[in-house]
Design goal:
Chain A has helices at about 20-25, 30-55, 65-85, 90-100, 110-135, 155-185, 195-230, 240-275, 280-295, 310-340, 350-370, 375-380, 385-415, 420-445, 460-490, 530-535. By secondary structure, chain A is mostly helical. Chain A has one domain: Up-down Bundle (Cytochrome C Oxidase, Chain A). Chain A is globular and about 70 Å long. The two termini of chain A are about 15 Å apart. By secondary structure, chain B is an all-alpha fold. Chain B has a single domain (about 25-220), classed as Four Helix Bundle (Hemerythrin (Met), subunit A), CATH 1.20.120.80. Chain B is elongated, with a radius of gyration of 22 Å. The N and C termini of chain B lie far apart (about 75 Å). The chains are: A mainly alpha, B mainly alpha.
Chain lengths: ~550, ~230
């Protein structure tokens, strides 16, 4: 049957050729593809810095890099991965490509602003590369004062400006999504018929729009202090470095939810499709996204438990941090209930979804350890924290992103990748990830602090396990590059709906035409209808 | 054919307006999208300035005497004059939007130019004030001079003063740039009673920047003036 499928003659990829037709495009799908290429390059660069860190840590002595060089390696790993890969990842690539078709629109509300946000990411990255080639930056990705103001002589300002500018890229993406979801929905597509992917992106966009400006102004304050000798965080003149931490984490804690919420949106789509069932508790899953976004803004000071905040505020922030577990658990239990008695299959996107469950579960539960005041004092600034946030930001967010990429790749390109190799890579990523980061929980609990290039001998075995895991993980991340590129020419033609999924986006041809739909679609039914007669009524079969 | 399209075609003029972009069904949908987008953008601006206001609040509570002392070196009459200028510019801006809505091209251009002029007057006064601060060594950093016992903390005040008014002035400069483009568009006759969204959006931005100043003036210039 697959032999009879053909790619559509006209689609967004062949509607215009040459560099100019890409750089000046207003088509959300082409912009998404350019984002995909850009952040993949940044992911590779961030990965190389991570590799440098893991190679150094294979031996207890600091023998590969000087301490200062090592500081730069982990700083640039963090800056690249957070600001130039994780924040844009799922929203800018998959959200950009899929939100308009999912709501039956021709494009995002502001196509030119969409292109501008891509350019801003490039400009921000250019600042980062300038800082890199001028000698790098060594403050840690958090730019804590006074590391970043008086104590560092590395390229703090260009790096921070890079983060500042890419922040506006993120704000504009969020703004575009909010307006698009409010104003561009197809007739009949009410809020409670929206795919949960769209709900997740709506919640994400709220964080982007409300949180990012605060870190932007914080970066401005550090920059004026550094460049002009102003006094905002300078303790000598009465300034308070802890104020920086408050302002910074007011954005940067919710930023974790910018990374994880879209991944959760992907998981909802994938789980429903591959268990052929309506998502269990749709409105709970939808509102839990909003709840995570709201709670996410109220927990920032759990990063400051040892920074001298009062016991009472620490207790309040500890309690609120625990509260975030509730909407997160609502999602996880609802996904589990969706699987229950479903017709489950194990295609690659679903393997990533299972990987997400395992890793997010461990990452989330260890977050509760860290929200506990007493435990946090023991493990603060140790590898326990490093392991915890990698389980969320890499284990959770990247598993979701890769799962989504595998799920919608046939829609993006019209072709299928190798199922065999993609399953191998999903398993390698899962195994490699756990091998890399689980030992770090143990290291941290035993007291190994983060951000040092040397450590006592007794930590070596676990560190070698971690470095070996990183190598496996690296292979798992590189494999998709190969089979995705291979699929562009040689992959089987996918057809419009290779997974038999119910979403509106699967009604478009693959790859879709520039205008997405020939006629304005009208929605009559509920989302995730996999029962045959309901699906037929909803015009989805 | 969907209901949305049928509905749009019932209002024939809206569908065929030159300014309607391809991905919108109706002029109204386009306008609502722009308006919502602008309000969301202004929300981000509130939080952008909010970080500074928070820092100001904290340090003002901690170092009230230093803030009062430093505040008294600002020229209250120049500040008050600038406040009046900006409120006046908001009036001319509102009149420009009204003229655009009622299709009065030359009046629109006139009011927009008045807004630009008032904005430039504000910026000119700000230049005078900044120059005075440099002259008296009130700029924080190595050259800062103050005789008061709170000299160190006064630097915090002036750091915030320059950062807040500087960012505000930057927004004014951007605003003048936007107004120039809008004026040029208005002069070319791009707007009519069915399409005046850019004038209205530029107006929202201008009013917002005014509003920031309405808060900055008392916070920076009027700390314990009754002494």
């Amino acid at each position: 049957m697959l032999d009879t499928l053909k790619l559509p003659e006209r689609h967004y990829l062949n509607n215009g050729h040459g560099l100019k037709s890409w750089l000046l495009t207003k088509d959300h799908k082409r912009i998404a593809i350019m984002y995909l290429i850009s952040i993949s390059v940044m992911f590779l660069i961030g990965g190389l810095f991570a590799a440098a860190v893991r190679v150094e840590l294979m031996t207890p002595e600091g023998d590969l890099f000087l301490a200062d060089t090592y500081n730069k390696m982990f700083t640039m790993h963090g800056v690249v991965m957070v600001f130039f890969f994780l924040i844009p990842s799922t929203p800018a690539v998959l959200g950009n490509f899929l939100i308009p078709p999912m709501i039956g629109a021709k494009d995002l509300a502001f196509p030119r602003i969409n292109l501008l946000s891509l350019y801003l990411l490039w400009v921000g990255a250019a600042f980062f590369f300038y800082a890199l080639f001028a000698g790098g930056v060594d403050t840690g990705w958090t730019f804590y004062t006074p590391f970043s103001s008086s104590a560092s002589n590395s390229n703090v300002v260009p790096t921070a400006l890079g983060a500042f500018i890419s922040g506006f890229s993120s704000i504009l993406t969020g703004l575009n999504f909010i307006v698009t979801i409010h104003r561009m929905r197809a007739p009949g597509l009410t809020w409670f018929r929206l795919p949960l992917f769209v709900w997740a992106h709506y919640a994400t966009s709220l964080i982007q729009v409300l949180g990012t400006p605060v870190v932007a102004i914080t970066i401005v304050m550090v920059a004026v202090e550094r460049m002009f000798g102003f006094a905002i965080f300078d303790p000598v003149r009465g300034g308070d470095p802890v104020l920086f931490q408050h302002l910074f984490w007011f954005y940067s804690h919710p930023a974790v939810y910018i990374m994880i919420l879209p991944a959760m949106g992907v998981i909802s789509e994938v789980v429903s499709t591959f268990s052929r069932k309506t998502i269990f508790g749709y409105s709970f899953v939808a509102f839990s996204s909003l709840a995570i976004a709201v709670f996410g803004f109220l927990v920032w000071a759990h990063h400051l438990f040892v920074a001298g905040i009062s016991t009472y505020s620490a207790m309040v922030f500890s309690f609120l941090s625990f509260a975030v577990a509730i909407p997160s658990a609502v999602k996880t239990f609802n996904w589990a209930a969706t699987l229950y008695k479903g017709a489950i299959s194990f295609e690659t996107p679903m393997l990533y979804a299972y990987g997400f469950f395992g890793l997010f579960l461990i990452g989330g539960l260890t977050g509760l350890f860290l929200a506990t005041l007493g435990v946090d004092i023991h493990v603060h600034d140790t590898y326990f924290v490093v392991a915890h946030f990698h389980y969320i930001m890499v284990g959770g967010a990247i598993m979701g992103y890769l799962g989504g990429l595998h799920f919608w790749w046939p829609k993006l390109t019209g072709r299928m990748y190798s199922e065999f190799f993609s399953r191998i890579s999903a398993i390698l990523v899962f195994v490699g990830f756990n091998l890399t980061f689980f030992p770090q929980f143990m290291l941290g609990y035993m007291g190994m602090p983060r951000r040092y290039h040397a450590y006592p001998d007794e930590f070596q075995v676990l560190n070698i396990m971690s470095s070996a895991g990183a190598a496996v993980l690296g292979v798992g991340y590189l494999l998709p590059v190969l089979y995705f590129l291979w699929s562009l020419k040689r992959g089987e033609v996918a057809g419009p709906n290779p997974w038999g999924a119910s979403g509106l986006e699967w009604q478009m041809p693959s790859p879709p035409p520039t205008e997405n739909f020939k006629e304005q679609p009208v929605v009559h039914g509920e989302p995730y209808e996999y029962t045959p007669h309901v699906a037929r009524e909803a015009n989805l079969v | 054919m969907s209901n949305a399209v049928a509905h749009a075609e019932a209002h024939g003029h809206a569908v065929h307006h030159d300014a309607l972009q391809h991905h919108f069904e109706t002029m109204q949908q386009q306008k609502e999208a722009s308006t919502l987008g602008m309000w969301v953008f202004l929300l981000t601006e509130v939080l952008f300035f909010g970080g500074l206001f928070f820092a100001y609040l904290l340090y003002r509570v901690w170092y009230f005497d230093a803030f009062a002392e430093a505040s008294r070196t600002l020229d209250i009459s120049l500040g008050a004059f600038n406040t009046a200028v900006l409120i006046g510019s908001s009036l001319t801006m509102a009149l420009a939007v009204r003229s655009a809505q009622t299709n009065q091209r030359s009046a629109t251009v006139r009011w927009l130019i008045s807004t630009i002029v008032l904005g430039c007057v504000f910026l000119g006064v700000k230049v005078v004030e900044y120059a005075d601060k440099f002259e008296h060594h009130h700029v924080p950093g190595p050259h800062f001079i103050s005789e008061s016992p709170w000299a160190a903390q006064e630097q915090l005040f002036f750091s915030l003063y320059f950062t807040m008014t500087g960012l505000h002035a930057l927004h004014m400069i951007v605003g003048v740039g936007i107004m120039s483009v809008i004026t040029w568009m208005a002069a070319k006759g791009k707007f009519d009673e069915h399409y005046y969204t850019p004038v209205e959006m530029a107006g929202l931005y201008w009013h917002f920047v005014d509003l920031v100043w309405i808060y900055l003036f008392p916070l920076l210039y009027l700390v314990e003036r009754h002494n």
